[in-house]
Write a structure and sequence with these properties.
This protein is of the alpha/beta class. It folds into two domains: 219 residues, Flavodoxin domain (Rossmann fold); 37 residues, no CATH class. The protein contains eight helices and eight strands, in the order βαβαααβαβββααββα. Strands 1, 2, 3, 6, 7 and 8 form a six-stranded parallel β-sheet that branches. Helix 1 crosses helix 8. It is globular, with a radius of gyration of 19 Å. The chain starts with 5 loop residues before the first strand and ends in a 47-residue tail after the last helix. One of its GO terms (cellular component) is cytosol. It comes from Brevibacterium sandarakinum. Belongs to the NAD(P)H dehydrogenase (quinone) family.
Length: 264
């Protein structure tokens, strides 16, 4: 490979022999075989602590401000070492693969706790400590960093389609894709789902493996989801779409730029 990249593979599943575990091992092996450098965080295997605490950040009895005190600790370089290590992995990566099972239509608690502890103000959002610039969406600190979500779930394939009971996949994951990744400036790729995970047989697994190889091969070429920038005229000061953008329409899809809105 002429231009090898660094990929950070962040995963959250308690059983390494699960479908998630097998896809993780296979996916990482494939990326390495194509010349990429892969850095891993297998949160359950690491025994990751998902709980935000003020221990070590504020004195005993002092009021803990989760946003302000973690920002101060980030600027001072006094965040816990496990958090600093994960921040370094994220900063150094050209792309991030985030893999998890969908539990109760959300990420596992251990992964949510990774976001809570790692993506602190000053590092992932808020204002740049040096310049004062807003760190959000098109001004986010992780501009250019690609992110691919891989999710296993028990739903049937059509249940996550446009008319499915569980909702279309990008809308089902909107809080994660838009509210976490796009918010921090990342280039958000269409997520990949592995439905009917509890009923996987050898034939369906082979299909999953082939499909995942294809997606990983296109990790740096796939067209992203074109979420709207916040500071280029699509939104009011109250963060609501201006009337002339998709007039009369509502819902999550209005925050994605349609093909016909982009210059040809």
């Amino acid at each position: 490979m002429d231009d090898p990249k660094t990929v950070f593979w962040l995963s959250a599943h308690p059983e390494p022999r699960s479908l998630n575990g097998q896809l993780r091992r296979m996916g990482i092996k494939h990326l390495k075989s194509t010349g990429h450098h892969v850095v891993e965080s297998d949160l359950y295997a690491m025994g990751w602590d998902p709980v935000v605490r003020g221990d070590g950040l504020v004195e005993a009895g002092q009021r803990f401000d989760p946003t302000g005190d973690t920002k101060r600790a980030y600027i001072e370089g006094s965040l816990p070492s496990d958090v600093r290590g994960e921040q370094a992995k994220l900063q150094d990566a050209d792309a991030v693969v985030v893999q998890f099972p969908l539990w109760w239509y959300a990420v596992p608690a251990i992964l949510k706790g990774w976001f809570d502890r790692v993506l602190v103000s000053g590092f992932a959002f808020g204002k740049d400590p040096d310049t004062g610039q807003r760190l959000r969406f098109e001004k986010g600190p992780f501009q250019g960093k690609r992110v691919l979500v891989l999710v296993t779930l028990g739903d049937r394939p059509r249940a996550i389609g446009p008319r499915g009971k569980s909702g279309e996949l990008c809308e089902l994951l909107f809080g994660l894709l838009h509210g976490t990744f796009a918010y921090t400036g990342m280039v958000v790729l269409p997520p990949m789902a592995f439905p009917s995970a509890d009923f996987t047989d050898n034939e369906s697994y082979a299909d999953m493996e082939h499909a995942l190889h294809d997606r990983l091969d296109q990790l740096f070429e796939t067209q992203p989801i074109h979420y709207r920038p916040q500071f280029q005229g699509d939104y009011t000061e109250e963060w609501e779409l201006v009337p002339e953008v998709r007039p009369g329409e509502t819902g999550l899809s209005t925050h994605v730029i349609d093909d016909h809105e982009r210059p040809s």
